[in-house]
Amino acid sequence: MCSLALFPPPLPSGQTTLCESNNELLSGTTTEDQLKQVWSSPLSLYFPRESLKLHSRTESSSKAAFLDHSETLWMRSAATSEHTLLEGSGCILALLQKVSSFHGSLFPHLTLSSEDMIAEFSQVLNWSDCVVRAFAWHPHTDKFAVALLDDSIKIYNPKSATTPTLKHRLQRSVAAVQWKPLCASALAVACQNCLLVWHVDPCSLSTRPSSGCAQVLSHPGHSPVTSIAWSPSGSLLVSASPMDTAMMVWDVASESCVPLQRVGGGGVSFLSWSPDGSHVLASTPSALFRVWETRMWTCERWPCVKGRCQSGCWSPDGSRLLFTVQGEMVIYALTFTDTPGVGLCGGPQAAAVVADLSETTFNTPDGDIIVGGEIQSLAWDSTGERLAVLLKGDPHAADRPAIIAVFKTRTSPIFELLPCGFVQGERGAEPRLMQFHPSFQHGALLTVCWSSGRITHVPFYFLSAGVPHCGLSGSPSLPRPQTVPADFANQSLFTELMS
Amino acid sequence: MFSTEQTCWFVRKVICWRAAASTAWAVLLLGPITAALVILGRFSLFHPIQTISECLSLLTSASAVFSLILLCGVILMIGFLNLEYYTVIPTIACSKIALLGQLLHPRQLVNSAVHCVMGIVVAWCCAITIGGRYETLGYTCPQSDGDSSSQMCLNEYHLILLLAGAFVGLSYSLLGVIHNMNYISFHTVQQYKYLRFKGALPLVVKCSATQALYSIRNFIVVYFFLGYIPKAWFCKTLNLYLNSSVHPLDSIAGLLDLSLVYHLWISASFLLFTWHITLVLFRIFVTELYSFPVQSSFTEDAHQCLAKVLNEKQPMILKFLALQDLALLSQHSPSRRCQVFSLSQPGGHPHNWNAISKECLSMLTDLTQRLVAYHDTVATNGRAKSLSTGSERKTSSETSVTSGTEDLMSPRPTLLMKTPASVFARSVVGTPRTPLTAPFTPDLDSPFASPALRRLTAPVEQCSPWFGTVQSPHVMRRGPKLWSTSTDSQVNGSPQSSPASVPSPKQEPSKPSLLAQFLQNRKEQVKNFLAKRVLIMYLFNKLPEASSQALFADSQAHIWALEGLSYLVQASFSEDQFGVVQTALPSILSCMLVLQEAVDRHFKLPHASSKPVRSTGSMGDSTHKTLRFALRATLKTAIYRITTTFGDHLNAIQMSAEHRKRLQQFLEYKE
Fold first, then answer.
1. Angle formed by the axes of helices B16-42 and B106-130, to 10°?
2. Where is the composition biased (Low complexity) (chain B) (predicted)?
3. What does the pLDDT look like over B102-121, one tens digit per residue?
């Protein structure tokens, strides 16, 4: 296993990564002309911070001044009489709450405010300050949803002229959005107090769908929701809140939920459903994560040594889980052998370290740059050939920027990691959030949301090993003839043969 | 009714054992629950040690053992009632009067009476365990006239506890009908029984406590007003006297005794908790997945195979479990899928696949026809013609009735025909299962048919109205139109029509038939009179969502059929070696698309897409209220599952142009 030292050095500042072609990352200098050219493509977006913030402040403050008041006088008086009747049981409930909050002292995250908690457990780097708070590609088409700082969600579709803006009274502090698989319209939104499922008709010309298009899913004690995951078959939705030890499995159509409660961990912070639908990763705020098996919903516990599981991602066939632990600079892998009926007995015994991302110094014309450190999030593309790792960096040190490191991966016949390169944006822009396009035809497409409010797309052109090769040309599109790839590109960082 | 030897093997071998196991667990849990009751009932804040020692001595006493045995008997009885009354297709009352009919059904009355008695028994056991002033019905007290000799007096504390037990038992039974407590829903998330029980426990505790609170509140109100009747009756029959020196309990001061209310609440909670636990265990055990063999190597087991079982009409629970198994095997089990796609050994026919797909498709087609027929009867204003029941019956059974003779009809039959889920009409007609006389609204809730009969014959009865309608749409179309104007005036325009109904002397000579005019006016007057009576309108008005809910009452089966079919088709893309699925693909797709169209049309009706109010604090399962939404979502997902798997290959399939257009929408993700 080798370190980041095998990577090609980062680009000098002012250059941005454009795409990967012929096994090499291409970069370009960002002059204003090029910027215009690059950003003029329909899916590249720019949300200047100023245009949003002011807007959101006034709106939210005026909304907060009024109370929601939809009950009639009679209903309210009935409710109060019920309250007095239920006072006895209310006392008992309060007592229970006290007892349960005893473990608040064991789990310090329970004392955070809900905004801080979302920021702490979000997959987005520096969530509270981020213009783009959540991003989701549609699993089947070229369509995506962007949640912005002003609590609105915009839906972009290159084939349609309208960009619907979704706003809802309860849609505050959006932590995650995800499209329902095998459906064109449903979008799940994890909010501060509840879960919203929007039904946005793709044929509709309306730019402001009414809040009647949204289903509100809420369960007492289950807020803030920091992570959601649809089952790949589209039938179930799981949601997690660091405040709630139960993970909710929702049947969205009937708005009913089944809480899956397990003692320990103090909550659930991050969820990831494997692409084959057989497992769900659920990490907790303490040094423990669980892997649920989705047939009978049993789980296995994985205690970590140092910190909580920060992020994780599944290989496309669902057999391999990569995850990172807070406080450690390595990527671990777990391999699940699919033996139906045996359940979890066939699971792995221990996690293997597959990559070491400890800090490495690169000499660049602009001076030394230190790359590496803790990992914010992981993303694996749907072909299983590129793995993107968002490194946190240090916001206070200029020479330790947050950066995205991309690995080439191979899952069969053996699991291998090879260096690919760093993805960098324009000067001063930090990557905050990244996602691979789930169904990109020519390889992989990484979408990155930057701290400046830009959203860019970095294509990686390659022929997938799963697809039969039609020729010997390395890439489908050849911008210009390339030299032979540098020697470090073929040096493997990790293979299963080594370990 | 049906051949017991063939179909009941499942009930005999599986369901009965599951019910027995669930009841056994409930009996085992009775011990700890009773111990909790003893501690809660005798708890005294100032003498904790004494409380514990008292409780321990009580738990080992003979009376406690005896009451525990009695309670076991009660649990066994409740378990038996659960088994006897459960249903997988909920009965949905389309109007208040139908609900009333359900409540007053003889079978339900028996149920209520048994629960009432069980409530008294449980309350008696509670009285024994709580002890103190509640222990006995009579006690010796000095005679009121100053005589030194003593007499037996009525212990009102004991009596009020027994009556509370009876009241709570009765309300449990009645609320069971209103909230469809006997309906068993299947969970979308499979879990092991223990974990499911553990998950349900907090809800059971909460529900029992709250429901006990409300029941006791109602009971106290009833006792305050009517408490003297049972008191006097007991005194008279048991020859007891009322102790005049003790304050009577049916007064405000008597009922403000907090300790009394607490003990009433504790015993009611105990009663409801044990019963709810029994019910929850029964539901968990019965809905447990049962794995049917896809193919059997022995001919004597052939009737237990999935394909055979799916085609059975009775009992419904068997069909539901088979469909559930189909949905899960198609999703999770490649080896069993392989058996579905396999060919028969001599002959090479895909019998398994043919039987499964045929049954699933026929169920979906059946639902489509039901939806289309319903849509055709509903007027454009969305309100189901309240007269459709009566008029359809009339036009189909007595074809001689025309609009001319309609005027001569007496007001009384008119009233009867106005009843949407007409209880009276049903009882008058007598044979509710013949297609001609069955009401048009798809209510399965004939209050005078036994629930067991209904459970067993549900598919027949449900389908029956549609047989006639699909064959003869003219009769059906004409039915509502004959009456549409009069209904509207009767419901909406009563103030307008009342002046018109006043006979005007000027017009009289110009009219040819005085008698007809007179009768018409009378009829109008009676109608207006009745329409203004709030109670009658309240009873007979259709509940807005109910007909839509009733239409989709058994849709869980359709959901599984859709899931099973779509997963099998998806798997066939890579697993089907012989191409057995390909031959059925056009029919599956067109069936789903037609159903999709019908469902879309149905959801355009008012009330169909309105979300029901979610009831959280009740043990009743409200899943049936949202089944139509679940069906709509599953249907869309199922079509998408097929289109994303096959992609452009679907263009090679023979289809009508309309369906192809629709399918193209799905291929472009525009639905």
1. 40
2. 397-406, 494-505
3. 999 999 999 999 999 999 99
